[in-house]
C-alpha cells in the first residue's frame, strides 16, 4: 500500500477488528500489520486509536457499476452500508455527524432532512427510494435461489456471516459480524422473528431466511 493513504480511527464500544476491517474495506491481517502495538486482536478497548486505510484497498473491488446493494437502514443499523450512506448524505450537504458506520440520531436527522428535500416520506428509514434519490443505482435481488441452512446458537461459518449481515441491514444488530452464532446473534434473530410475526425460537429456518429477503432453493 502506498504512503499517505492512512488515517487514525478511534475504536468505539463493542467494535472488533473484524467490524473495523469491514468498515474500511480491508482485512484483519492488514490492520494487524498497520498496528503492531495490538498484542491481542480480540482485546480492543473504546477510545483506542488505531491506524486504518484512508481509502479502500485495491484488493477489495467496489460493487459493479450496473447496480449496488441497497439494504434497508434505520436507527440502530451499523456497518459499511451506513458508512456509504453517511458519505452520500455529506456529499449532498446533509451532515450526519461523524462518518463512523453507526446510524444514530444525527444520521437519522440528516436522512429525514434529505427525504424532505426530495419530497419523500420523512420516516428516517433508508430504502430503495431514498438510496435512489441519493444517486445509487440499486440492483434488484437475485432471482437465483440460495442454500438456506438451519442455523442456531453454536453454528459457525460463512452462512452465519451472511445471516449477521442480513440482520444488520434490517436494523437488528447481532454484535460482531464474525461468523459465530452466539447469544447476541440469537437475540437479534428472536427480535427479527418477533417483528415479522414468526415463531420466536431463535432458530433460522426457511421462513426466517425468506423474511430476511433470501430466495431459498428447495431440496
Automatic annotation (TrEMBL):
<dbReference type="InterPro" id="IPR036779">
    <property type="entry name" value="LysM_dom_sf"/>
</dbReference>
<protein>
    <submittedName>
        <fullName>LysM peptidoglycan-binding domain-containing protein</fullName>
    </submittedName>
</protein>
<dbReference type="Pfam" id="PF01471">
    <property type="entry name" value="PG_binding_1"/>
</dbReference>
<dbReference type="InterPro" id="IPR018392">
    <property type="entry name" value="LysM"/>
</dbReference>
<dbReference type="InterPro" id="IPR036365">
    <property type="entry name" value="PGBD-like_sf"/>
</dbReference>
<dbReference type="Pfam" id="PF01476">
    <property type="entry name" value="LysM"/>
</dbReference>
<dbReference type="InterPro" id="IPR002477">
    <property type="entry name" value="Peptidoglycan-bd-like"/>
</dbReference>
<feature type="domain" description="LysM">
    <location>
        <begin position="7"/>
        <end position="52"/>
    </location>
</feature>
<dbReference type="InterPro" id="IPR036366">
    <property type="entry name" value="PGBDSf"/>
</dbReference>
Amino acid at each position: 500500500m502506498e504512503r499517505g493513504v492512512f488515517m487514525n480511527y478511534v475504536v468505539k464500544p463493542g467494535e472488533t477488528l473484524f467490524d473495523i476491517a469491514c468498515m474500511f474495506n480491508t482485512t484483519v491481517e492488514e490492520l494487524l500489520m498497520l498496528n503492531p502495538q495490538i498484542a491481542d486482536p480480540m482485546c480492543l478497548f473504546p477510545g483506542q486509536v488505531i491506524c486504518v486505510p484512508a481509502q479502500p484497498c485495491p484488493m477489495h473491488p467496489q460493487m459493479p457499476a450496473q447496480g449496488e446493494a441497497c439494504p434497508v437502514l434505520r436507527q440502530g443499523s451499523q456497518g459499511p452500508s451506513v458508512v456509504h450512506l453517511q458519505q452520500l448524505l455529506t456529499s449532498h450537504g446533509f451532515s450526519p455527524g461523524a462518518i463512523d458506520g453507526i446510524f444514530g440520531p444525527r444520521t437519522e436527522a440528516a436522512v429525514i432532512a434529505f427525504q424532505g428535500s426530495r419530497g419523500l416520506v420523512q420516516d428516517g428509514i433508508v430504502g430503495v427510494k431514498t438510496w435512489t434519490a441519493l444517486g445509487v443505482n440499486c440492483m434488484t435481488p437475485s432471482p437465483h435461489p440460495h442454500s438456506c441452512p438451519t442455523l442456531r446458537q453454536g453454528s459457525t461459518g460463512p452462512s452465519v456471516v451472511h445471516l449477521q449481515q442480513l440482520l444488520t441491514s434490517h436494523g437488528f444488530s447481532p454484535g460482531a459480524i464474525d461468523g459465530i452464532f452466539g447469544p447476541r446473534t440469537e437475540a437479534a434473530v428472536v427480535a427479527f422473528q418477533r417483528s415479522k410475526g414468526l415463531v420466536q425460537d431463535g432458530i433460522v429456518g426457511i421462513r426466517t431466511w425468506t423474511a430476511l429477503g433470501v430466495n431459498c432453493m428447495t431440496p
